[in-house]
Amino acid sequence: MAAEQDVYDALRNAAAVTAVCSTRIYPDVIPQEKALPAVAYVRAGTEFVTTIHTGTPQRTRATVEVWCHADTRSSADALAVLVQTALTAELFYPTDRRAEMDSSGPLNVFATVLTYQLWE
Questions:
Q1: DSSP reduced 3-state for 66
Q2: Rounded to an integer, what distance in angstroms lies between the CA atom of residue 107 and that of residue 60?
């Protein structure tokens, strides 16, 4: 769980991010009753690194997705830029960025999803 805590700490301590989403930074998913903009982060995978001498993992590399949710595409993208700046400053390695949209409810919710890898 160290990777998730590192992401949370970096975002919580980034003044530019909290100026936009306040304390709405959640593990896994944003609760439905919460206001937007908001950020959710989730571990998307873990790579175990072993050596030829032992099958015991020596280190792990976590892949974490950070979902930047907002009411509009431009707001989600703007929040993603702030998140990207905060995480890159902490030396998290960015690997992907994509757009998502949920239109299943009464309102459209836009997300910009950033993917990072970090060593634990």
A1: strand
A2: 39
Please give the pLDDT value at position 96.
Answer: 97
* C-alpha dist (Å) from residue 50 to 1, 31, 56, 60, 119: 19, 37, 6, 9, 13
Residues 14-51: pLDDT tens digits?
999 999 999 999 999 999 888 999 999 999 999 988 88
Q: Which tokens go with 62? A: 């976590």
Where residue 28 falls (left for φ over 0; alpha for ψ -120 to 50; beta otherwise) is left
**Among 72, 48, 17, residue whose Cα is nearest residue 7:** 17
> Coil, strand or helix: which one is 33?
coil
The two structure tokens encoding residue 27: 């593990």
CATH code where residue 57 lies: 3.30.70.1700
Number of folded domains that form the chain: 1
- The answer to whether the CB of 43 falls within 8 A of the CB of 62 is yes
